[in-house]
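Design a sequence for this backbone.
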């Protein structure tokens, strides 16, 4: 049996995590006028994942009769081991990794927060890998929602 409430809790939790991490990244990148473009891409990807998760929450509410509109989405999409739940688990792990990555690049100085450029140079591949994984997860959500709506 589908459990739309636990799926809703998952979506809401992920939206909150994305929002917190996204805001942290924006503050971090804005504090650095010459931030590497890859960090901007990563920040944009977090914002896009947040938008997708908000869309999923609207679909969940509509499909369970909790929203202003109703959608005919199969209840199986919200079950515990469904593909969407696997994507939720994946994005949770990615957000924790991203948060740790951002923290590892921070360098607090008397002038404020800066990027430790040496750490960035050493860990650039990790940042790009996180960016690609987030993009793939976001695309997975799009594909799953598209397939479920048909």
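Sequence:
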């Amino acid at each position: 049996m589908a459990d739309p409430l636990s799926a809703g809790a998952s979506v809401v939790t992920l939206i909150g995590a994305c929002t917190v991490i996204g805001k942290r990244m924006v503050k971090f990148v804005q504090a650095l006028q010459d931030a590497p473009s890859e960090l901007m891409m990563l920040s944009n990807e977090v914002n896009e994942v947040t938008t997708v998760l908000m869309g999923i929450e609207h679909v969940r509410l509509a499909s369970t009769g909790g929203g202003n509109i109703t959608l005919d989405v199969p209840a199986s999409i919200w079950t515990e081991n469904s593909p969407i739940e696997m994507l939720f688990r994946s994005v949770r792990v990615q957000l924790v990794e991203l948060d740790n990555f951002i923290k590892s690049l921070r360098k607090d100085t008397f002038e404020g927060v800066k990027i430790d450029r040496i750490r960035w140079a050493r860990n650039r591949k990790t940042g790009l890998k996180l960016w690609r994984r987030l993009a793939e997860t976001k695309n997975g959500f799009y594909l799953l929602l598209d397939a479920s709506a048909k």
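The chain has a mean pLDDT of 75.
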